[in-house]
Predict the 3D structure of the following.
Amino acid sequence: MLESEAAATAPVGPPARSSPAALWPVFVAYLVAFFLVLFAGTVYVLVPAIPRSGWDPARLADQASRFAFTPAGLLGVALVSAVMLALVTLVTARLLGGDVVARLNLRPTRARPLGIAAAAAGLAGLSLACGSAAQLAGLGKAGVTASIAVALHSSNPLRLALAVLILGVAPAFAEEGFFRGLMLTRLRVRWSRWPAIVVTALAFGLFHVDPVQGSEAFVAGLFFGWVVDRLGGIRPTIVAHAFNNGMFVLVASLQGPDAEPTRAATLSTLAAGLAICGGATALIRSRHALRA
Protein backbone atom coordinates (compact mmCIF):
# COMPACT_ATOMS: atom_id res chain seq x y z
CA MET A 1 0.00 0.00 0.00
CA LEU A 2 1.30 3.44 -0.85
CA GLU A 3 2.18 5.68 2.08
CA SER A 4 -0.39 8.29 1.01
CA GLU A 5 -3.14 5.66 0.91
CA ALA A 6 -2.11 4.26 4.27
CA ALA A 7 -2.23 7.71 5.79
CA ALA A 8 -5.71 8.30 4.35
CA THR A 9 -7.13 5.10 5.84
CA ALA A 10 -5.31 4.93 9.17
CA PRO A 11 -7.62 5.44 12.18
CA VAL A 12 -7.49 8.80 13.88
CA GLY A 13 -7.46 8.41 17.64
CA PRO A 14 -5.45 9.09 20.76
CA PRO A 15 -1.69 9.02 20.25
CA ALA A 16 0.04 5.72 20.81
CA ARG A 17 1.44 5.16 24.28
CA SER A 18 4.76 3.60 25.10
CA SER A 19 3.07 1.02 27.37
CA PRO A 20 -0.05 -0.93 26.41
CA ALA A 21 -3.28 0.62 27.64
CA ALA A 22 -5.23 -1.49 30.13
CA LEU A 23 -8.59 -2.65 28.78
CA TRP A 24 -10.29 -3.54 32.05
CA PRO A 25 -11.44 0.04 32.85
CA VAL A 26 -13.63 0.18 29.76
CA PHE A 27 -15.23 -3.20 30.49
CA VAL A 28 -15.87 -2.20 34.10
CA ALA A 29 -17.41 1.04 32.81
CA TYR A 30 -19.63 -1.03 30.50
CA LEU A 31 -20.96 -3.13 33.39
CA VAL A 32 -21.49 -0.03 35.53
CA ALA A 33 -23.34 1.69 32.67
CA PHE A 34 -25.47 -1.39 31.95
CA PHE A 35 -26.70 -1.84 35.52
CA LEU A 36 -26.98 1.89 36.21
CA VAL A 37 -29.16 2.39 33.12
CA LEU A 38 -31.26 -0.65 34.04
CA PHE A 39 -31.67 0.54 37.63
CA ALA A 40 -32.51 4.13 36.68
CA GLY A 41 -35.06 3.03 34.08
CA THR A 42 -36.69 0.62 36.53
CA VAL A 43 -36.99 3.29 39.21
CA TYR A 44 -38.48 5.71 36.68
CA VAL A 45 -41.33 3.35 35.74
CA LEU A 46 -41.90 2.09 39.29
CA VAL A 47 -42.40 5.51 40.89
CA PRO A 48 -45.69 6.30 39.08
CA ALA A 49 -46.71 2.61 39.00
CA ILE A 50 -46.77 2.21 42.79
CA PRO A 51 -49.73 4.57 43.44
CA ARG A 52 -51.50 3.37 40.29
CA SER A 53 -51.33 -0.19 41.59
CA GLY A 54 -53.10 0.88 44.78
CA TRP A 55 -50.00 -0.23 46.67
CA ASP A 56 -50.84 -3.80 45.70
CA PRO A 57 -47.62 -5.76 44.90
CA ALA A 58 -49.62 -8.15 42.72
CA ARG A 59 -50.60 -5.30 40.37
CA LEU A 60 -47.30 -3.44 40.47
CA ALA A 61 -45.60 -5.28 37.59
CA ASP A 62 -48.62 -4.85 35.32
CA GLN A 63 -48.92 -1.12 36.05
CA ALA A 64 -45.18 -0.61 35.55
CA SER A 65 -45.32 -2.39 32.20
CA ARG A 66 -48.32 -0.33 31.09
CA PHE A 67 -46.62 2.94 31.98
CA ALA A 68 -43.29 1.89 30.39
CA PHE A 69 -44.91 1.68 26.95
CA THR A 70 -46.77 4.97 27.11
CA PRO A 71 -45.15 7.98 25.40
CA ALA A 72 -44.25 9.46 28.79
CA GLY A 73 -42.72 6.17 29.91
CA LEU A 74 -40.76 5.56 26.71
CA LEU A 75 -39.41 9.10 26.47
CA GLY A 76 -38.56 9.25 30.17
CA VAL A 77 -36.68 5.95 30.19
CA ALA A 78 -34.80 6.93 27.01
CA LEU A 79 -33.77 10.28 28.49
CA VAL A 80 -32.70 8.78 31.82
CA SER A 81 -30.73 6.08 30.01
CA ALA A 82 -28.94 8.60 27.79
CA VAL A 83 -28.02 10.78 30.77
CA MET A 84 -26.69 7.83 32.79
CA LEU A 85 -24.65 6.52 29.85
CA ALA A 86 -23.20 9.96 29.09
CA LEU A 87 -22.32 10.40 32.76
CA VAL A 88 -20.44 7.08 32.90
CA THR A 89 -18.65 7.96 29.65
CA LEU A 90 -17.44 11.35 30.86
CA VAL A 91 -16.42 10.11 34.31
CA THR A 92 -14.50 7.16 32.87
CA ALA A 93 -12.76 9.31 30.25
CA ARG A 94 -11.77 11.79 32.95
CA LEU A 95 -10.44 9.04 35.25
CA LEU A 96 -8.36 7.58 32.42
CA GLY A 97 -6.61 10.94 32.12
CA GLY A 98 -5.50 12.97 29.16
CA ASP A 99 -7.62 15.03 26.80
CA VAL A 100 -11.24 13.88 27.08
CA VAL A 101 -12.02 14.99 23.51
CA ALA A 102 -9.17 12.87 22.16
CA ARG A 103 -10.02 10.01 24.52
CA LEU A 104 -13.52 9.87 23.06
CA ASN A 105 -12.30 10.38 19.48
CA LEU A 106 -14.38 13.53 19.19
CA ARG A 107 -11.81 15.58 17.33
CA PRO A 108 -12.53 16.82 13.78
CA THR A 109 -12.38 13.94 11.32
CA ARG A 110 -11.08 13.69 7.76
CA ALA A 111 -14.62 13.21 6.42
CA ARG A 112 -16.04 15.53 3.81
CA PRO A 113 -19.72 16.48 4.09
CA LEU A 114 -20.35 13.90 1.36
CA GLY A 115 -18.77 11.23 3.54
CA ILE A 116 -20.94 12.19 6.51
CA ALA A 117 -24.05 12.12 4.31
CA ALA A 118 -23.02 8.72 3.01
CA ALA A 119 -22.68 7.42 6.57
CA ALA A 120 -26.21 8.61 7.36
CA ALA A 121 -27.61 7.11 4.15
CA GLY A 122 -25.75 3.86 4.69
CA LEU A 123 -27.14 3.43 8.20
CA ALA A 124 -30.65 4.31 7.01
CA GLY A 125 -30.40 1.67 4.28
CA LEU A 126 -29.06 -0.87 6.75
CA SER A 127 -31.94 -0.13 9.14
CA LEU A 128 -34.44 -0.62 6.32
CA ALA A 129 -32.85 -3.94 5.44
CA CYS A 130 -32.78 -5.13 9.07
CA GLY A 131 -36.39 -4.10 9.62
CA SER A 132 -37.47 -5.90 6.47
CA ALA A 133 -35.54 -9.02 7.50
CA ALA A 134 -37.33 -8.94 10.86
CA GLN A 135 -40.66 -8.67 9.04
CA LEU A 136 -39.84 -11.67 6.85
CA ALA A 137 -38.83 -13.64 9.95
CA GLY A 138 -42.19 -12.89 11.57
CA LEU A 139 -40.68 -10.51 14.14
CA GLY A 140 -42.08 -7.28 12.74
CA LYS A 141 -44.43 -6.72 15.69
CA ALA A 142 -42.08 -8.10 18.34
CA GLY A 143 -39.60 -6.28 20.47
CA VAL A 144 -39.16 -2.79 21.84
CA THR A 145 -38.96 -1.11 18.43
CA ALA A 146 -42.49 -2.22 17.52
CA SER A 147 -43.80 -1.03 20.90
CA ILE A 148 -42.19 2.37 20.37
CA ALA A 149 -43.82 2.64 16.95
CA VAL A 150 -47.24 1.92 18.44
CA ALA A 151 -46.77 4.44 21.27
CA LEU A 152 -45.63 7.23 18.96
CA HIS A 153 -48.36 6.79 16.34
CA SER A 154 -50.31 10.02 15.71
CA SER A 155 -48.18 12.05 18.11
CA ASN A 156 -48.94 15.76 18.32
CA PRO A 157 -46.22 18.18 17.09
CA LEU A 158 -44.81 18.89 20.57
CA ARG A 159 -44.56 15.23 21.50
CA LEU A 160 -43.08 14.45 18.10
CA ALA A 161 -40.39 17.12 18.54
CA LEU A 162 -39.57 15.81 22.01
CA ALA A 163 -39.42 12.26 20.68
CA VAL A 164 -36.96 13.27 17.95
CA LEU A 165 -34.72 14.94 20.52
CA ILE A 166 -34.98 12.25 23.21
CA LEU A 167 -35.10 9.12 21.05
CA GLY A 168 -32.98 10.46 18.20
CA VAL A 169 -30.41 13.03 19.26
CA ALA A 170 -29.77 12.14 22.92
CA PRO A 171 -29.00 8.42 22.34
CA ALA A 172 -26.82 9.31 19.36
CA PHE A 173 -24.48 11.39 21.53
CA ALA A 174 -24.60 9.07 24.54
CA GLU A 175 -24.23 5.75 22.71
CA GLU A 176 -21.64 6.91 20.19
CA GLY A 177 -19.68 8.61 22.94
CA PHE A 178 -19.50 5.44 25.01
CA PHE A 179 -19.33 2.64 22.43
CA ARG A 180 -17.47 4.13 19.48
CA GLY A 181 -15.76 6.88 21.46
CA LEU A 182 -14.65 5.37 24.75
CA MET A 183 -14.79 1.61 24.10
CA LEU A 184 -13.73 1.29 20.46
CA THR A 185 -10.98 3.88 20.78
CA ARG A 186 -9.57 2.05 23.81
CA LEU A 187 -9.75 -1.37 22.17
CA ARG A 188 -8.07 -0.09 19.01
CA VAL A 189 -4.98 0.80 21.03
CA ARG A 190 -4.45 -2.89 21.78
CA TRP A 191 -6.35 -4.79 19.09
CA SER A 192 -6.54 -4.70 15.31
CA ARG A 193 -9.51 -3.17 13.50
CA TRP A 194 -12.08 -5.93 13.22
CA PRO A 195 -11.68 -7.65 16.62
CA ALA A 196 -12.18 -4.24 18.24
CA ILE A 197 -15.17 -3.40 16.02
CA VAL A 198 -16.87 -6.78 16.54
CA VAL A 199 -16.47 -6.77 20.33
CA THR A 200 -17.77 -3.19 20.52
CA ALA A 201 -20.74 -4.06 18.28
CA LEU A 202 -21.50 -7.12 20.41
CA ALA A 203 -21.44 -5.00 23.57
CA PHE A 204 -23.68 -2.46 21.83
CA GLY A 205 -26.20 -5.15 20.88
CA LEU A 206 -26.27 -6.71 24.35
CA PHE A 207 -26.76 -3.28 25.90
CA HIS A 208 -30.18 -3.05 24.22
CA VAL A 209 -31.32 -6.26 26.01
CA ASP A 210 -34.25 -6.84 23.61
CA PRO A 211 -33.35 -9.68 21.17
CA VAL A 212 -34.82 -8.03 18.06
CA GLN A 213 -33.55 -4.52 18.74
CA GLY A 214 -30.25 -5.90 20.05
CA SER A 215 -29.65 -7.92 16.88
CA GLU A 216 -30.24 -4.83 14.74
CA ALA A 217 -27.99 -2.81 17.04
CA PHE A 218 -25.20 -5.38 16.61
CA VAL A 219 -25.38 -5.09 12.81
CA ALA A 220 -25.51 -1.29 13.05
CA GLY A 221 -22.55 -1.43 15.45
CA LEU A 222 -20.43 -3.18 12.84
CA PHE A 223 -21.22 -0.41 10.35
CA PHE A 224 -20.61 2.31 12.94
CA GLY A 225 -17.26 0.85 13.91
CA TRP A 226 -16.09 0.62 10.33
CA VAL A 227 -17.19 4.19 9.58
CA VAL A 228 -15.31 5.51 12.63
CA ASP A 229 -12.20 3.63 11.60
CA ARG A 230 -12.47 4.82 8.00
CA LEU A 231 -13.39 8.46 8.62
CA GLY A 232 -11.29 8.94 11.72
CA GLY A 233 -13.70 9.86 14.51
CA ILE A 234 -17.20 9.57 15.93
CA ARG A 235 -18.67 12.83 14.66
CA PRO A 236 -19.98 11.23 11.43
CA THR A 237 -21.56 8.34 13.36
CA ILE A 238 -23.24 10.74 15.79
CA VAL A 239 -24.84 12.47 12.80
CA ALA A 240 -25.80 9.15 11.18
CA HIS A 241 -27.17 7.75 14.45
CA ALA A 242 -29.27 10.84 15.16
CA PHE A 243 -30.57 10.97 11.58
CA ASN A 244 -31.54 7.30 11.59
CA ASN A 245 -33.29 7.44 14.95
CA GLY A 246 -35.03 10.69 14.05
CA MET A 247 -36.32 9.23 10.79
CA PHE A 248 -37.62 6.20 12.68
CA VAL A 249 -39.54 8.47 15.06
CA LEU A 250 -41.07 10.44 12.19
CA VAL A 251 -42.08 7.31 10.24
CA ALA A 252 -43.46 5.65 13.38
CA SER A 253 -45.65 8.67 14.11
CA LEU A 254 -47.15 8.59 10.61
CA GLN A 255 -47.44 4.87 9.93
CA GLY A 256 -50.48 3.08 11.32
CA PRO A 257 -49.73 0.55 14.08
CA ASP A 258 -51.73 -2.10 12.22
CA ALA A 259 -49.98 -1.56 8.89
CA GLU A 260 -48.94 -4.91 7.46
CA PRO A 261 -46.79 -4.67 4.30
CA THR A 262 -47.10 -7.43 1.76
CA ARG A 263 -44.27 -9.91 1.30
CA ALA A 264 -43.44 -8.38 -2.08
CA ALA A 265 -43.25 -4.90 -0.55
CA THR A 266 -41.05 -6.19 2.27
CA LEU A 267 -38.70 -7.89 -0.19
CA SER A 268 -38.54 -4.70 -2.24
CA THR A 269 -37.70 -2.68 0.87
CA LEU A 270 -35.03 -5.20 1.83
CA ALA A 271 -33.44 -4.95 -1.62
CA ALA A 272 -33.63 -1.15 -1.60
CA GLY A 273 -32.08 -0.96 1.86
CA LEU A 274 -29.19 -3.22 0.87
CA ALA A 275 -28.65 -1.23 -2.32
CA ILE A 276 -28.58 2.08 -0.43
CA CYS A 277 -26.21 0.69 2.19
CA GLY A 278 -23.98 -0.86 -0.49
CA GLY A 279 -23.80 2.36 -2.49
CA ALA A 280 -23.07 4.43 0.62
CA THR A 281 -20.38 1.99 1.71
CA ALA A 282 -18.71 2.21 -1.70
CA LEU A 283 -18.77 6.00 -1.48
CA ILE A 284 -17.26 5.99 2.02
CA ARG A 285 -14.51 3.70 0.75
CA SER A 286 -13.70 6.11 -2.07
CA ARG A 287 -11.50 9.19 -1.93
CA HIS A 288 -14.57 11.40 -2.44
CA ALA A 289 -15.57 10.82 1.19
CA LEU A 290 -12.27 12.09 2.56
CA ARG A 291 -10.69 15.50 2.77
CA ALA A 292 -7.44 15.85 0.87
Observations:
- Residues 1-18 have pLDDT under 50 and may be disordered.
- The chain has twelve helices and no strands.
- Residues 157-190 form the longest helix (34 residues).
- Residues 21-289 form one domain.
